[in-house]
Amino acid sequence: MEKKVALVTGASRGIGRRIAAEFASSGFSVALNYKENSEAAKTALGEIERSGGSGALFKCDVTDHGAVIEMIEAIIARFGKIDVLVNNAGITKNRGILKMTKEEWDSVINTDLNGPFYVLKECARHMASAKNGSIINISSITAYRGVLGASNYAAAKAGLTALTKSAAMEFGRHNIRVNAVLPGFHNTDMGQKASKVYVEKALQDSVLSLTTDISELSSFVLFLSGMKTVSGQVFSWDSRII
Ligand code: NDP
Fold it and tell me: Could you tell me the domains of the chain?
């Protein structure tokens, strides 16, 4: 049977790397996108290949629309199609509003909102022709709750959640499902940049007094990608009540 193809952005490290491995272990060919960390990306692909999976690396800054167009063309040239997009790449640049620079605001909005829009748009063109596709945007609980000292991030993720619902409305007629997942706190490179106060509060607010498990999250993203009748939904993968 023809292999399905998944593109995971920000797959060199953290949550994206785990999700890419999950898709590969389920038989997908995986396109692993990253921005600059080639060593980490090679390690991520190496792990997939050693486990019997297949994939390829696509270095591309998702904030560069032209580069995104080229990346999507390169993926289509290599694998012939894109069945699933996991829009995962993201950054934080935390600072209180009064001290936040324009660069800190703009770069987070560019990476966490504009970039996912470019990738979603260019993937959806191909998915629409194929009359099939699943797009999962990795947002954040901060989209709903806000967060002290990271207004740029919360605003970008709120935008991404709204984009999810709007894209689902537009793309339903093409059989493209668009959903968002809000991971809980994960101790990735990004997680380690969160303030101690934020992490303590995440635990306090958890009704289970737990942070979330990355393998549960990646299994859920894989499962969601295969659902044919669910679109425009936002799934909080957390034990904090929104
Ligand atoms: P990491 O910092 O561990 O990894 C970030 C990944 O994104 C890397 O692969 C990085 O590539 C890539 N990336 C960053 N900027 C760009 C860009 N401009 N173009 C392409 N790739 C880029 O982050 P996490 O794994 O923690 O986070 C992944 C996603 O999950 C993010 O969207 C984040 O907002 C979200 N999330 C994370 C939570 C957490 O607690 N960690 C909680 C809720 C949501 P490179 O290695 O080349 O730099």
Answer: 5-235 (3.40.50.720)
